[in-house]
């Protein structure tokens, strides 16, 4: 065994060992205030209280449970209700389903699944409900998936996130006629995605008609504690049961969720597991009992009211932004704000919902919608990264697509979101909108430029948030697929490296880690001053340069190999010629030395040098004569882009404004040449009082013809020309 100090030290290391990597968790731990410590204290107190004697434990747990239930029923306007406290927020609905089964099937306790087989139960949930909720209920209840019926939302009238009541009525009638038993309906007071509330009043009437149980859940139930409650949410107080998640609403860690319900038979509640005879089970309410007393009624209402004010502040700012479409249920009070970036076009067909300012217009073309989903995914990630205290996240909606969601009731109490964070979020959104619009507008131009450029291949990747994807095509000459793939990867990798070395505001990458295309260059978001033609031409020229250098190395390897073989043959032949010239006697060791001393043999060294530029062998005689190594032929210049421009200090590459300045300089130089031509055509200027006679005019004409002839033949001396003409010729030659 180990002592307590060692064990606690181990726990501390496990808690804070990865704190530097997981910044989000460390940020949350810093915002646990005194009310959070009060909730955490409840768990340890519950463990200590459980060791009391049975009678004292029973009295204490009964007091804690009754007080907490009474406070919650009064706070959320739910009269004569009972409470079930559970850790998993789906467990309350599961217990309610068991309660309804026990209530509607009287012989269920004795016969079990046999009574369900004779009359199949049906549970109705909205298509906008939480993902996997119906399957989880069926698995826990032991029912087939055919017992779960998903009710579609409105398609013509009303919110597209509300349950279609008329369609639900027809479905229930069909189930009753087919011998099934409608059991329970799960409605939403704030859908998980968009935060819309179903028509709870009409649903309650429908449930009473078919003797069904109505269960309500959702984030909008928190507004029942406020002084002003919308009528749609207020109807939830008449339902049979509701689930409250107070931990996220009030920022209380490790407090249980609560399911409030109304039922008259306590034996059935006990059979369903909603109540327990064990006193320890009742201690689940202790953390909540402590936290509610610490916050008080005013503190609870203030936290919920603050979250509603945050959503209203954001909604008011979003109304003034272009290219931002919101999807909210109520313009005056909507706890959840969902918005997305969308650029309207004049030629797009308008739907009936387009007239509403609060309705998101849907793209008609599937590819266009996919692009908008990608851009909104990028926008949500950027906002969450830049303003982490806002708590925004990305949500996938069935009709609108990918959207950015702000649900302060679920995040503000934990993250400590304030009004300043909302203002910062709006400022960041204003900075990102021009980038999104510019990138969206230039994507098509970039695709056209790439398709027109030889050597480049445009890769269509709708899931990439950026300008586009391009690949440099390697021109293979009879190579197999493996070698061609390696060369293609090598060239595009080197191309990416070269592009990142340029001084530009663009981001070049290999694309996403999973699901991206191989051997491609991914270009990120751009601004409106991007010169697309220069960018594409630079990519093509850089790719050609890399390919030519690669081919040059391959060719040079073969040339050097052949040059070495040829040099060996020539040197062998030169050695044989030297032996013939020197004679046989000079090759004998002793005799040759004496003979060379009496009669020295003068022979110039005959070596060979290999010219890499020309790819040929040359003699080294010139090197021994001049005592220096020759430079050989000047290598050809490196190919560059035809659109390469001279940038001023501090200016970035691929800026469209630079093209206009170049065009201005060319225009000005051309106009300057025209002015010089006009000046040459003018008659010579005379001083005042001087007249030009016939003889002077004839001499002037002869001089003009001679000068014109010299200009045409190129014999005229440039030093005698005016400086302006010399400058014009230099500019013309540069062009």
Automatic annotation (TrEMBL):
Residues 672-681, 696-707, 717-735 have a biased composition (Basic and acidic residues). Residues 660-671 have a biased composition (Polar residues). GO terms for biological process: carboxylic acid metabolic process. Residues 334-440 form the PDXDC1/PDXD2 second domain. Residues 627-735 are annotated as: Disordered. Gene3D superfamilies: Type I PLP-dependent aspartate aminotransferase-like (Major domain) (3.40.640.10). One of its GO terms (molecular function) is carboxy-lyase activity. Residues 557-584 form a coiled coil. Residues 446-551 form the PDXDC1-like third domain. Keywords: Coiled coil, Decarboxylase, Lyase, Pyridoxal phosphate. Belongs to the group II decarboxylase family. Its cofactor is pyridoxal 5'-phosphate. This is Pyridoxal-dependent decarboxylase domain-containing protein 1. It comes from the Eukaryota. It comes from Edolisoma coerulescens.
């Amino acid at each position: 065994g180990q002592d307590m100090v060692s064990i606690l030290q181990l726990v501390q290391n496990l808690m804070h060992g990865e704190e530097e990597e997981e910044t989000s968790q460390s940020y949350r731990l810093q915002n646990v205030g005194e009310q959070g410590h009060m909730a955490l204290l409840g768990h340890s107190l519950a463990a200590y209280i459980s060791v009391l004697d049975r009678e004292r434990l029973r009295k204490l747990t009964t007091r804690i449970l009754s007080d907490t239930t009474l406070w919650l029923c009064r706070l959320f306007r739910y009269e004569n209700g009972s409470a079930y406290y559970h850790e998993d927020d789906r467990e309350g609905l599961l217990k309610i389903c068991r309660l309804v089964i026990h209530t509607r099937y009287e012989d269920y306790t004795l016969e079990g699944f046999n009574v369900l087989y004779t009359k199949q139960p049906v549970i109705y949930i909205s298509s906008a409900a939480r993902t996997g909720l119906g399957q989880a209920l069926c698995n826990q209840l032991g029912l087939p998936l055919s017992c779960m019926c998903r009710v579609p939302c409105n398609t013509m009238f009303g919110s597209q996130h509300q349950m279609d009541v008329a369609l639900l009525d027809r479905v229930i009638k069909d189930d009753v006629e087919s011998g099934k038993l409608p059991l329970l309906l799960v409605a939403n007071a704030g859908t998980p995605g968009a935060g819309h509330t179903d028509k709870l009043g009409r649903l309650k009437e429908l449930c009473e008609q078919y003797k069904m149980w109505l269960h309500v859940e959702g984030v909008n139930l928190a507004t029942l504690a406020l002084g002003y409650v919308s009528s749609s949410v207020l109807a939830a107080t008449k339902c049979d049961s509701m689930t409250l998640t107070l931990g996220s609403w009030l920022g209380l860690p490790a407090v249980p969720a609560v399911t409030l319900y109304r039922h008259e038979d306590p034996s059935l509640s006990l059979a369903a597991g909603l109540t327990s005879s064990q006193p320890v089970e009742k201690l689940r309410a202790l953390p909540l009992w402590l936290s509610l007393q610490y916050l008080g009624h005013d503190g609870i209402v203030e936290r919920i009211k603050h979250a509603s004010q945050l959503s209203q502040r954001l909604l008011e700012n979003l109304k003034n932004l272009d290219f931002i479409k919101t999807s909210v249920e109520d313009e005056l009070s909507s706890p959840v704000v969902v918005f997305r970036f969308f650029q309207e076009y004049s030629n797009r067909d308008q739907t009936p919902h387009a007239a509403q300012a609060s309705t998101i217009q849907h793209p008609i073309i599937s590819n266009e919608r996919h692009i908008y989903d990608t851009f909104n995914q990028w926008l949500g990630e950027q906002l969450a990264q830049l303003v982490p205290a806002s708590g925004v996240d990305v949500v996938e909606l069935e009709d609108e697509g990918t959207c950015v969601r702000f649900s302060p009731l679920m995040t503000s109490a934990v993250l400590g979101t304030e009004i300043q964070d909302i203002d910062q979020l709006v400022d960041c959104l204003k900075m990102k909108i021009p980038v999104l619009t510019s990138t969206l507008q230039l994507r098509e131009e970039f695709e056209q430029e790439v398709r027109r450029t030889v050597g480049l291949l445009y890769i269509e990747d709708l899931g990439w948030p950026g300008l586009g994807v391009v690949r440099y095509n390697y021109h293979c000459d009879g190579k197999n697929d493996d070698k061609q793939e390696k060369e293609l990867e090598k060239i595009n990798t080197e191309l990416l490296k070269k592009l990142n070395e340029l001084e530009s505001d663009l981001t070049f990458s290999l694309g996403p880690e999973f699901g991206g295309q191989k051997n491609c260059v991914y270009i990120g978001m751009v601004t409106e001053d991007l010169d697309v033609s220069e960018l594409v031409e630079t990519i093509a020229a850089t790719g050609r340069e890399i390919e030519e250098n690669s081919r040059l190395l391959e060719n040079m390897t073969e040339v050097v190999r052949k040059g070495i073989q040829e040099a060996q043959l020539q040197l062998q032949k030169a050695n044989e010629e030297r032996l013939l010239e020197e004679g046989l006697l000079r090759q004998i060791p002793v005799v040759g030395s004496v003979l060379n001393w009496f009669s020295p043999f003068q022979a110039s060294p005959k070596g060979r040098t290999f010219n890499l530029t020309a790819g040929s062998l040359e003699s080294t005689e010139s090197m021994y004569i001049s005592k220096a190594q020759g430079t050989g032929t000047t290598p050809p210049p490196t190919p560059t882009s035809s659109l390469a421009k001279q940038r001023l200090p501090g200016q970035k590459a691929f800026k469209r404004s630079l093209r206009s300045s170049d065009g201005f300089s060319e225009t000005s130089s051309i106009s300057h040449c025209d002015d010089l031509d006009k000046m040459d055509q003018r008659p010579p200027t005379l001083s005042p009082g001087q007249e030009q006679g016939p003889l002077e005019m004839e001499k002037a004409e002869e001089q003009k013809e001679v000068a014109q002839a010299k200009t045409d033949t190129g014999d005229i001396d440039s030093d005698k020309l005016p400086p302006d003409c010399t400058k014009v010729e230099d500019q013309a030659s540069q062009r």
